[in-house]
Amino acid sequence: MKEYICSAFNTKIKFNPCSSRYTVESNGGTWVNTGRKPYIILRKKVGKKYIYTYRPFSLAGEKIHKVTENAIESRYSGFFAFGKKYDFTLVCTAKITGEGKAEFSVRADNETGMDIHAVAYPAPFNALNPDSNAYTVDTMRQGVLIPDGWKQNRLSLFLITKYWRKVNTGDCYMPFWGRVSGKKGFLSIIDTPYDSTIFSANGKNKAILNGVNWMSSLGKLSYERRIKMEFYADCDYNTICKGYRNYLIEKGELVTIDEKIEKNPNVKKLIDTPVLHTSIYTTIHPKSNYYDKKHPEKNQTLFATFDQRAEEYAKYKDMGLDRLYIHTDGWGEMGYDNNHPYVLPPCPQAGGFEGMKRLCDKCDDLQYVFGIHDQYRDFYYSCKKFDMNLAVENIDGGHPYCSVWFGGPHTWLCAANAKKFLETTHKELEEHGIFIKGAYLDVFSIMWGDECFNREHPATREESIKYRGECFDYLRGKGIIASSEEPGSQMINYLDLVHHAPYALRPQERGVAVGVPTPFLNLVYHDCVFVPWCVDGIGGWGIPDGDAGFLHCILNAQTPYFGPYDEDGKVLSDDELKNRIAKVKEACAVQKRLYNKEMVSHKFLDENRRKQETRYSDGTVITVDFDKNTYNVSYGE
After folding, report:
1. For a FRET experiment, which of 55, 331, 506, 611 has its CA 20 to 30 Å from that of 3?
2. Residue 104, Cβ neighbours under 10 Å: how many?
């Protein structure tokens, strides 16, 4: 069968219509499709539910291919499933867009029904003859470098080939991936990320290779989906991360901390400032996964009143902790993860509105930033303002359901309705003289956009993300520091602070790392958002077992968490507090110098990857040794 070829800008793309595979020759490298061939997933409504079936492109009834000077276009039509022939045509285009650059796109013409569930195109790429030291650059959480044949925690690598990883979640913070073989490599950027998922496949030499699944939007493929690729003659993972950063800059989509400070000068209060995570009250619903049936008395806990927290914070100030950002959980009526998105009044057992005002005012006096945990996605059945008509509606007319968290049964609030609840919360707090200085909107930054089929407030995933952004803009307009859970790329421009940006482990708490932990996120976004790290002890949530979190904090020149409590939640002794205050001040000194500097490069300095180095745009070089638990900072100009 005829092979189709286009050539431009010293780059060549070949297409084999029999296998539906491409070969790209660019900058001295040859890259070929491998793994599962391109396919479409079709659906049919049966009663109130949908059923699904898979069709490779090769089963299209009609296939037409044509070549232009710099592109190959393939049209697939006549797909047959569920006893009918479909009207739509998939149009797939491979285009050379510049020196060492290509673009792959797919759209559906004549899409008359909600028949397309997903399309996988193009198939993953790998080097024609991978080098023995080849690896994949993967943006799961902070970053995962996956050498071919990597054996440690292989089960976790196997498992990521068994599900679709949603972009803008912990499975994929940033919408790109890359491959490096020898000195040659490529960067793949999902240019239309809102309705996309990553799928991974096994390749030659036990490589993990990534591709993309394009998901329907409100039932249809709807618009053209694109990935952009850049091919390099001499690169490593730093090159790939910087390629994505440059892409953001070119699109005007990289917003730095300095730019955020211009919009809200209060963001400066995060400089040289540790973060304290504390709690007031919890109630656990009987239907929650966390409910303790054997010890029901443990399902309600008052950790401290508002006045007790105020007294505690004053002690830290007296001990020399001059600056502090305070993240407060469980301040609402029923405590942590209950009754959202309307949790007022503040916890009566802790002091109600009056007690919360005294705490807020005390933090102002101490020049500490008083921030609250809040939630405008989980919509609890117990909420005083619960209305199912405001919730996300699925394609089948049903609603999401979850009962894992402390508050028990809940669905999702449609993001189109979130800002109204947020405004109500702050209006009522302000009516009682409570002016919040920081607000954490839980999960907004780390969950896929929620598409909603409710005819009164329909929302695509992209619109959902933008509605969430409006909530953060509302906070910024009031001078409130905006934060959320993790730095999903679709929300990061709205955020001043995140809860954490952990590495991928299995299990996530004190587990074994998935692949080789590498700070890809910080190579892109270090100077764009404040990211706290736990600095006490070895290992922890998202910190590779055996590593000191303090060294990761220093290496990444980021914010430390201040941990003043023991395992039972009691305040430590004065001597232990002094040690921890000194420790966070040590980390803050590095953050203060480098918070707005680009992380230029990261490097492993030994074969075991225990010695590491980061370089910053002012010339600063930081080295750490995880085995010896030592570090060195050589500041630039």
Report:
1. 55
2. 25
Q: Are the C-beta atoms of residues 465 and 194 closer than 8 Å to each other?
A: yes
DSSP 509: B
Q: In what order do the strands lie in the sheet with 29-33?
A: 4-8, 11-16, 21-26, 29-33, 125-127
Contact 200, 108 (CB under 8 A): no
pLDDT tens digits, 467-481: 999 999 999 999 999
Using only the alpha carbons of the chain, give its radius of gyration.
26
Cβ–Cβ under 8 Å, residues 327 and 438 = yes
Which residues share a beta bridge with 512? 506
389, two tokens: 């008509």
Task: Give the confidence band of 272 by pLDDT, cuts at 50, 70, 90.
Answer: very high
Longest CA–CA separation in the chain, Å: 80
Q: What is the pTM of this model?
A: 0.96
Q: Name residue 254's amino acid.
A: L
* Chain centre to alpha carbon of residue 408: 25
Element spanning 238, H or E: helix 237-250
Helix (H) or strand (E) holding 590: helix 574-594
Q: Give the model confidence (pLDDT) of 587-627 as tens digits.
A: 999 999 999 999 999 999 999 999 999 999 999 999 999 99
Q: Are 437 and 451 in contact (CB under 8 A)?
A: no
**Are β-strands 49-56 and 71-77 bridged in parallel, bridged antiparallel, or unpaired?**
unpaired
- Token digits of residue 314: 């004053």
Pairing of strands 559-560, 543-548: unpaired
Asked if the bond preceding 286 is cis, omega within 30° of 0, the reply is no
CA nearest neighbour of 304 among 366, 357, 359:
359
